[in-house]
Structures are given as structure tokens and as C-alpha cells.
Amino acid sequence: MAKAGTKQGRRGDAQPGLPRNDDIGESLRLELFRLQFVIRQAEQRAYDLFLQNLVKGTSHLSLGQEAVAAGFAGAMNPNDLSFCTYRGHAHTLARGVPVEKVLGELMQRDNGLMRGKGGSMHLTSAEHGVMGSYAIIGAHLPIACGAAWRAQYRGDDDVSVCFFGDGTTNIGAFHEALNFAAVWKLPVVFVCENNLYMEYTPIRSVTAVEHPAADRAAAYGLDRIVIDGNDADVVYRTAREAYARARAGKGPSLIECMTYRHSGHSRADPAKYRPPGELEEWLKRDPIKIYRERLAQFGVGADAVAAIETAVNQEVDAATEACKAAPMPSADILHTDVYADGGWSWRN
Fold first, then answer.
1. Cα(302)–Cα(34) distance, rounded to whole angstroms?
2. What 8-state DSSP symbol labels residue 306?
3. Residue 196 buriedness (CB in 10 A; 0-12 / 13-18 / 19+)
4. Residue 282: in which H helix or E strand, if any?
């Protein structure tokens, strides 16, 4: 039993007395698997395209962290808002942005999400509720609070969901945003994707507490919530409860998802700082592997899983070819969308 004021994520295992697929259901479970597989295949394709010199610069992949994006997106309403870090491909795809739009943006093509102007670290699609990926650590936490304050003020029922890495918890904006959200009881959910490393440094070596997000929750009157971030069922259930709390006017939640990136911080990072055997242990808890086993446990046939995988692979292949054939953006868009009015000229 968890201590008072503490919530631990439940495992997604079938429980005695519950019907098959219990509170989640087969159709939603298949969608959660599809989301995770889309993210995995699209991110792997982005890596392959980088090796072919078709993706310029660097980018930050979520290989191994797919369950967080899928679980939180699967529990969202269409009008809920996502605020992401530079590791935002997964959350963008999870909200329904087509693979072609994401890969096109990474490849700086005119068919990209922002016609090639934003790139890997600034994916944005207001149409899908993706309110930006932010390259500055912690910058989006106060912005998410602002969006939540708007919803509260206007009586709207959307929830702002703010994703960030473990390193962000040592940034001032993290504490400022939490305090503001708690005092005003804002409908915002803060999600720490703790993959153990803040770029190249183990988070535990520079932080006074074991869980950098959850162990600080009490300072703002919030529950301590640490969950298995590699189990999409656990993530989905936790997200669902947090959204319900926010919509009921009970204020924010701070959720720490324990997960692991399979590759380095970015594609320029070989991740040689990781101790021997650590990656291999986490690969045993690969989110895709876990969910394939979960589907089988609840009686979902292998043919249904294979059909999803085939469809996703075809989607990623088609998106890749479309992006390779797409032109680079024309020079006439260089000075558009610089300011809120769509232009480039400063006005005072």
C-alpha cells in the first residue's frame, strides 16, 4: 500500500473479476499500440534519414519513451493542449499529426508541418492541439500555465499538458510554474519524463532527492506520483485521473514517469557515459515489447497486431518517399510568420 499522499502507478495486468480488457477496452488498447508503433517507426526512420544526410543538424529522439506520449495522448480530449520539449516528435505524432508532416519538417521540405521553417525542435500544430516544442529548457512550463489560466478564466474545459525532462526540475521556471499553478488551481498537468539523464549527466548526481519531480511535489501541496513510464496502460490510467481532477477544478498534477531513451541525448551523442548493462536491462522493459505481450494477455490475436504494424510501416514508407520528392521551401516564405500578424515588420 502506498503511503498517504503518495500515488504509485498500477500495473496494466488483468485482474481477477474484471472483464477482458477491463477499464480500457480492446479498441483503445489497439490504438495505444498503434500510437506507440507509429512513434517508434517514425523516429527510427528519422534516424535512418539522418544517416543518409537527408535530415540536417541534430534532433532528439524518443526511442524507448513511446508509452508516455501514447498514454497521455490516448486519454486527452481533442481540445486539450500539449506543450513539448525539443524531444517533441513523439508527442506531436501522438496527437494525430501525419508522419509525412513531421518527417517533411525534419527534412526541411515544403510539405513539412511548418514548410521546413521550424525544424526538429519547434514542431507546432495548433490544429492538433500541439502548442509548440520548446528548445529552451523549462520555457514552456509558464506558457502552459498561461494557457490553463485562459481556460479557467473563460470557463473552457480543456486541460494543458506540459511535458519536460528530468533536468528541467532544476530550472527556476519549474518551481515558479508549479507554485503558480497550485495557488490558482489551474487545469494543467505537468509530466516529467525521467529518462535518468539530463543530457550527459545522471540526474541523481546533481539533485538532492531521488525523484526530482515527485519528491518535490509536497512543497506545492501536490501528491507524489511516480509511475512506470514504459507501460502505456499505467500511463493512460494516471493521465485519465489527472485530467478528470483538472477539469473538476481541483488544480494541477505533477507526474513523474520513469522511462529510458535507447539512444543518446541527441544523434550526436554516442551515450558512452552509461554504465555497462544499463541499456540491456531497460531493453527488457521496451514499451513496444510490453504492449505486444499485454495485447496477447487480453486475447488480442497476432493477426490484429500484425495488421497494425503493416499499416504503420506502409504509412512511414509512403511518407518517406513523399518527403524525398517534395521541394525545398521557396524563398518567399522567409519573412512570413515572424510576428503574430503573419508578417515580418516590427510594429509598435
1. 14
2. H
3. middle
4. helix 278-283
Taking the C-alpha atoms of residue 196 and residue 285, their distance in angstroms, rounded to an integer, is 15
Instruction: Give pLDDT tens digits for 183-242.
Output: 999 999 999 999 999 988 989 999 999 999 999 999 999 999 999 999 999 999 999 999
Give the list of residues 6+ apart from residue 109 with CB closer than 8 angstroms, or none. Answer: 116, 323, 326, 327, 328, 329
Q: What is the pTM of this model?
A: 0.91
> DSSP state, 125?
B
Other beta carbons less than 10 A from residue 104's beta carbon: 24
State the fold for domain 20-87+133-323. Answer: Rossmann fold (3.40.50)
Domain boundaries, the chain: 20-87+133-323
Rounded distance, CA 213 to CA 165, Å?
10
| Contact status, residue 50 vs residue 298, Cβ threshold 8 Å | no
DSSP state letter for 327 = P
Residue 274, class by beta-carbon neighbours within 10 Å (0-12 exposed, 13-18 middle, 19+ buried)?
A: middle
Strand-by-strand arrangement of the 130-134 sheet: 6-8, 224-228, 253-258, 188-194, 160-165, 81-85, 130-134
